[in-house]
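Narrative of accomplishments. A recurring question from our advisory board has been how the design workflow behaves on a single, concrete structure rather than in aggregate. To address it, we present the structure tokens for one chain from the evaluation set, followed by the sequence designed for it. No filtering or post-editing was applied between the two.
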């Protein structure tokens, strides 16, 4: 598909639309626990989460963005059509799973879409395998297990430490502490998820940098894939924050009510454990799923009380949705690439 500087910038806007959708699709990750425990009202919770989603872009580095920009797909294959098709694959899959109320990973939808479009263009040699693929795929399992283990350990440890405390006092204290843990988790969400779209935008601008040389937009020309411009960082953080403010109530109900019942004490343990997992992943540049992470953490809190406290049927349905996310988004993106290419053939 023939590209121009305005066409590339239009795709950048599509990428920001994906970040917005990521925000409302994954809003449940940041607010389900704090809403289900009634520490904050739904409106206050989304504003709280959105604020820390945005603040995260100023707190963390851009290691995850660099992984997405040059660690998964060969830059020689990337062009405007590949990026557009990849974004369409991720957006369509996110909308389908949002409608079904399934807390799937927007991160893995984006990774799958990006890879599917690249493979449709150049075959599997377009993927930089093993590269960063190994750590990314391994963390599909590691992130929820780590979240579960940390939450289980934290719940058991605090329960033992507070075994003589009055339940009403514990509840009152953890209602305050949960504000901090919810903020920390939202920071983790913003630090990892917003960076993925930053990496896609940087990859696009580098791949099509020649189009900007003689255009009115020459100031946006980018040739170094290791550089993430400030305007990209701010735009992605703002888009995700705005998306989070729109809610995503279908998934909030699944995460905060159907998986297991939470009290402020449990909400704190789940959010704190999830935040630790995300901070570590972001530090090492691993694009993990915030959805997988918080689902594991919530399950860990429930399992600490008794295994039957977790609705494993709901958890199983979520896991199946996780497993099909990358291939489903890749398939949609691959088809989108073929349609887009045929449209201008």
């Amino acid at each position: 598909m023939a590209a121009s500087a305005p066409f590339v910038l239009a795709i950048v806007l599509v990428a920001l639309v994906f970040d917005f959708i990521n925000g409302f699709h994954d809003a449940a990750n940041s607010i389900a626990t704090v809403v289900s425990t009634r520490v904050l009202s739904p409106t206050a919770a989304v504003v709280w989460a959105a604020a820390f989603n945005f603040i995260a872009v100023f707190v963390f580095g851009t290691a995850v963005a660099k992984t997405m920009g040059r660690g998964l797909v060969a830059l020689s294959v990337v062009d405007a059509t590949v990026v557009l098709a990849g974004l369409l694959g991720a957006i369509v899959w996110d909308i389908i799973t949002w409608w079904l109320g399934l807390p799937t990973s927007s991160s893995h939808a984006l990774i799958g879409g990006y890879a599917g479009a690249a493979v449709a263009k150049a075959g599997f040699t377009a993927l930089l395998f093993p590269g960063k693929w190994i750590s990314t795929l391994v963390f599909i399992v590691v992130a929820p297990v780590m979240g579960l283990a940390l939450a289980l350990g934290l719940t058991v440890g605090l329960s033992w430490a507070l075994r003589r405390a009055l339940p009403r006092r514990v509840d009152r204290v953890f209602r305050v502490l949960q504000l901090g843990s919810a903020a920390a988790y939202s920071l983790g969400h913003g630090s990892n998820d917003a960076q993925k779209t930053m990496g896609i935008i940087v990859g696009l601008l580098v791949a099509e940098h020649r189009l900007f040389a003689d255009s009115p937009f020459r100031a946006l020309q980018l040739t170094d894939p290791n550089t993430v411009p400030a305007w990209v960082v701010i735009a992605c953080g703002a888009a995700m924050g705005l998306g989070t403010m729109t809610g995503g109530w279908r998934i909030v109900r699944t995460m905060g009510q159907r998986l297991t019942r939470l009290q402020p004490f449990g909400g704190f343990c789940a959010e704190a454990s999830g935040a630790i997992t995300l901070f570590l992943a972001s530090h090492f540049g691993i694009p993990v799923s915030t959805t997988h992470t918080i689902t594991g953490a919530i399950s860990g809190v429930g399992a600490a009380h008794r295994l039957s406290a977790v609705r494993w049927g709901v958890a199983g349905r979520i896991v199946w949705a996780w497993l099909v996310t990358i291939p489903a988004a890749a398939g949609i993106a691959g088809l989108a690439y073929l349609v887009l290419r045929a449209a201008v053939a």
